Amino acid sequence: QVKLVESGGGLAQAGGSLRLSCAASGLTFSSYTMGWFRQAPGKEREFVASHRWSGGLTRYTDSVKGRFTISRDNAKNTVYLQMNSLKPEDTAVYYCAARHNAISNFNSWGQGTQVTVSS
């Protein structure tokens, strides 16, 4: 059973930085695409970034391109989201997600970590 545990959320000022971590267990980490999603109050959950180890495919939603960086350490079964130049609109609960490379949809989720950016 896949288990994902996020950490690193908190409060930051606009223009500041935070790094989220997600420790994964119960999976062959290198065979999974790892992703980050977020959900702001009153809004639907949205895709933020993903990384597939095989082929090194990385994707970002347009609003975070150039500011956020997803990376992973396969030796530690951990994926990171480095968030720079934070904006108040980045405030949300951030969720780590995983899907096996053979399937299309993310089907394993962490419990979420709150990120709050003050202006």
As residue ranges, the low-confidence spans are none
What is the strand content?
over 45%
Structural class: mainly beta
Helical region count?
Answer: 0
Order of helices and strands: EEEEEEEEEEE
| Annotation, overall tally of beta strands | 11
Radius of gyration: 13 Å
Mean pLDDT: 96
Question: What does this molecule look like?
Answer:
The protein is mostly beta strands. It has no helices and 11 strands. Strand 7 (about 70-75) and strand 8 (about 80-85) form a beta hairpin.
Entry keywords:
mainly beta, 11 strands, 119 residues
Question: What's the helix and strand layout?
Answer:
Blueprint: E1 3-7, E2 10-13, E3 18-25, E4 32-39, E5 46-52, E6 57-60, E7 68-73, E8 78-83, E9 92-100, E10 108-109, E11 113-118
Parallel strand pairs: 2-11
Antiparallel strand pairs: 1-3, 3-8, 4-5, 4-9, 5-6, 7-8, 9-10, 9-11
What's a quick, concise take on this entry?
Helix content is 0%, strand content 55%. The protein is built from no helices and 11 strands.
